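Annex B. Sample input.
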Amino acid sequence: MRRARRWVVSTLGLTLAVACHGTSSDAPTDAGKEPPATDSGTGTDTGTATGRDSGPDSVGNDSGTGVGETGGAVDSGEEGEGGAGGMGNMTTAASWFSPSMYFNQPIDTAAVDAESATLISNFVTNGGWGLGRFQIDFSIDVYYASSSSMQMPFTSPTNVIPDDDIPTTVPLDPNNPVGFESSTGQTCDGGDCHYLVIDPANNRLIEIDQANVFGGTITTTGSIAIWSFTKPYTAALRGDVCTGADASGGLMAPLLFTAEEVAAGHIDHAIRFIVPNDRIQNQEYVRPATHGTGGPPSMWAASGGLPYGVRLRLKSTFDASSYSAGGQVVIAALQKYGMILSDGGNISLSAKSDTYSTTKWGSMLGSHDLVGIQPTDFDVVDANYGTDQVSSSMRFDFTSYNCVRTP
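Annex B, continued. Sample output.
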C-alpha cells in the first residue's frame, strides 16, 4: 500500500477513546485505493496505512529462484539471545526480540474473544479473504546487516511527523538491493517499496515504506520506524495512533515466515495477514496494534469490520492431513501463534522473499497451497500484550491521526 505523507497531522488534536467494540462516525482523513484483483502470486498488499497511502504493491517472488545471500552473515543461524542485546539469527527477524514480544507469544491456550463469532461472521459477509482465497505473498524481503554493509546517510522527509524515527545512517548491502520490495531495486517503483533491515550493531530493526535511494542517500515519502531489540515495550509500542511500515503500527519483519523456518519444520511466531480495505473497521484498532486507518465510506467498514491488530487462531480441530508438508508447518504456526491483521490488501499471508536467501521456496510451498482454509476455520483470541498486559478485547477508537509517542 502506497502512502502520501500526512500534511495536516500537526493541526489535529488527539481524541482517543477506549471502549468495548465501539465505532467511530467521524469524517475520515485517510485515503487509498484497492487495485484490481490478480491471481499470480503478485503482491497486491495495497490497503491504506497511515494518511499517506494509495497504490499497489510490488510483484511477489513465487518462483523459488534467486541468488545466494549477499548481505554477509551475522551468525550461522543458531539460536541466540535476541531481545537482550545478544545475537538473533538469520532464520527469522522475530529471533532478535524478547520472547515476551507479542509476536513471540504462543496463543494456543488463549481465551476466545467474546465477539469472535460475530467478527468472523461479519468478515465472511463482507467478502472474506482478498481474491476469495487464502493465498500467500512472497514479495517482501529482509536484509541482515553486517560489518560489510554500507552505511548510507538518511535524508529526512520534507515534513517529519511524530510517527517517524529519524536515523543518521541506514545499513544497505553494497552490491544488491537486499531487503527492498521494489521491481526497480533500491528505487521505488510506485508500490509499497518496503525496506526492512536488521541492524545488529545498533540493536535495532529499521522498517521503511516508500523507501528510495538516490544521490547517495536513502529517504522515504512514507513512514520510518525503528524498533529496539532491548526495549521492554508496553502494549502501546511506539505510541497510540502511531503508524509504521504497516498500517497497524506494529512490527512487520518479525511476522514474515521464511523458507528457512518451513524447511526446519517449525515457525515460532505470529504471522502477518492482510485483508481488503472494505473489510477493515474504520478508525479502530485493538492491541497489539497502535494505529488504524479510515477513508471514504465506500472503502472502509463503517461497522462489522475487523479491527487492525485482531489476532486469529486456526482451530485445533482443523484437519491438515491433505495439505503439503510445507503447508502443514504454516498451519501448525497458525494454531499455536496465530496471525495478526497488519495492513490492507488482497493476498492474505506474508512470507519472506527467497531472492537473496540460500534456502529457496521451490516446491516446498506455493502461493496457493493453503487456499482451502476458510475464515470460519479461525477464532479471534483474547490475549494480553506489553509490559502493562493490556487485553486485546479493548477497542481503541480515534478521530484524528495525531501520534502520541511513548517515552
